[in-house]
């Protein structure tokens, strides 16, 4: 039996500084006419993905892209075709997007889309785009709880919107109050908190999700059960392609991939380097944060190598 052919598609996530992304409505006469999607199109035989993206955006929107970052890759089976969607983040372009092929466009916030219906393949993409580019990993064990909470307030005030409460060596009787207090302080800022460990601990803390280390994820064959799967987040720590593939297979929403560069805590340890990181991130169907040897100022650098953003341990609280 011949395998189903896969159609390669280059897809653009044009992103405004305020986080809005561009969606286009498919014109009459096309499959799924009237549905909304991200702009893009089929890759021609022998054509590089980035070249296909630039061509499609010039033909469809009349723009010339100037800052394009590889993001994620997802395969989706429609009744009429199987497509491999190669997503790019487009942060800068020349010209004002306007329809060249009869489409209707709309700038939308990923977590508050007001147009419908959406192509089914785009629901996980919008959830992924609601993740901020900076993730802070708690460091209360070393800083002390009071010092950490004081630094947490400063970080929240300065825009941190995603927190992984790690501190695995603290006993549960100490971690639960810390998690609850972290959630309490994060809520007024619209920040989300994931607890490293069990769903039960996350629920007890009122957190927004769980984060699993690679060993905990390896023991699972499906996504952890949660009361509100649409809003609940699951993150996984990964170190190679097999762990990234497993994280995606169990339905994780994102992964941390480390170590990218040498770190103070693990001097001399093997690192991925940017080339290998970019290769793994581009093949992943879920967003990947770079971790290890990175700082706040490395977000754009990380994104240029396929990262969704950067995860910081000490750097999030200084």
TrEMBL record:
Q: Which UniProt keywords apply?
A: DNA damage, DNA repair, DNA replication, Hydrolase, Magnesium, Metal-binding, Mutator protein
Domain Nudix hydrolase, chain residue ranges per copy: 5-133
Looking at the keywords, is DNA repair present? yes
Identify the Pfam families for this entry.
Answer: NUDIX, TMP-TENI
Q: Name one GO molecular function term.
A: 8-oxo-GDP phosphatase activity
Among InterPro entries, the record links this protein to: Aldolase_TIM, MutT-like, Nudix_hydrolase, NUDIX_hydrolase-like_dom_sf, NUDIX_hydrolase_CS, NUDIX_hydrolase_dom, ThiamineP_synth_sf, ThiamineP_synth_TenI
What EC numbers are recorded for this enzyme?
Answer: 3.6.1.55
- The UniProt record lists the keyword Hydrolase: yes
Q: Catalyses which reaction?
A: 8-oxo-dGTP + H2O = 8-oxo-dGMP + diphosphate + H(+); 8-oxo-GTP + H2O = 8-oxo-GMP + diphosphate + H(+)
According to its UniProt entry, one GO biological process term is: DNA repair
Which cofactors?
Answer: Mg(2+)
- Which PROSITE patterns does the annotation name? NUDIX, NUDIX_BOX
State the PANTHER family in the record: 8-OXO-DGTP DIPHOSPHATASE (PTHR47707), NUDIX HYDROLASE FAMILY PROTEIN (PTHR47707:SF1)
What family does the entry list? Belongs to the Nudix hydrolase family.
- Report the protein name in the record: 8-oxo-dGTP diphosphatase
Gene source species: Thiobacillus denitrificans
């Amino acid at each position: 039996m011949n395998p189903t052919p896969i159609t390669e598609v280059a897809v653009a996530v044009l992103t405004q500084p305020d986080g809005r992304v561009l969606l286009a409505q498919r014109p009459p006469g096309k499959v799924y006419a009237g549905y909304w999607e991200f702009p893009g199109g089929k890759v021609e035989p022998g054509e590089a993905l980035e070249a296909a993206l630039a061509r499609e955006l010039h033909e469809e929107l009349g723009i010339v892209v100037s800052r394009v970052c590889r993001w994620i890759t997802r395969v989706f089976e429609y009744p009429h075709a199987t497509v491999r969607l190669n997503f790019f983040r487009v942060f800068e372009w020349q010209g004002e997007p306007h329809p060249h092929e009869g489409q209707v466009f709309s700038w939308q916030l990923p977590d508050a889309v007001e147009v419908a219906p959406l192509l089914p393949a785009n629901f996980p993409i919008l959830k992924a785009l609601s993740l901020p580019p900076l993730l802070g990993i708690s460091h209360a064990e070393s800083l002390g709880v009071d010092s950490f909470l004081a630094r947490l307030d400063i970080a929240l005030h300065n825009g941190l919107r995603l927190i992984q409460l790690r501190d695995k060596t603290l006993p549960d009787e100490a971690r639960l109050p810390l998690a609850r207090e972290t959630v309490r302080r994060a809520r007024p800022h619209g920040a989300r908190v994931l607890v490293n460990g069990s769903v039960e601990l996350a629920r007890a803390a009122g957190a927004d999700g769980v984060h699993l280390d690679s060993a905990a994820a390896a023991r699972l064959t499906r996504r952890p059960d949660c009361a509100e799967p649409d809003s609940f987040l699951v993150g996984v720590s990964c170190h190679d392609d097999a762990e990234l593939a497993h994280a995606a297979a169990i339905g994780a929403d994102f992964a941390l991939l480390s170590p990218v560069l040498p770190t103070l805590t693990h001097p001399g340890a093997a690192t991925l380097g940017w080339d290998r990181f970019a290769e793994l991130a581009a093949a992943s169907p879920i967003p990947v944060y770079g971790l290890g040897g990175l700082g706040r100022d490395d977000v754009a650098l990380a994104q240029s190598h396929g990262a969704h953003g950067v995860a910081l341990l000490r750097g999030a609280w200084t």
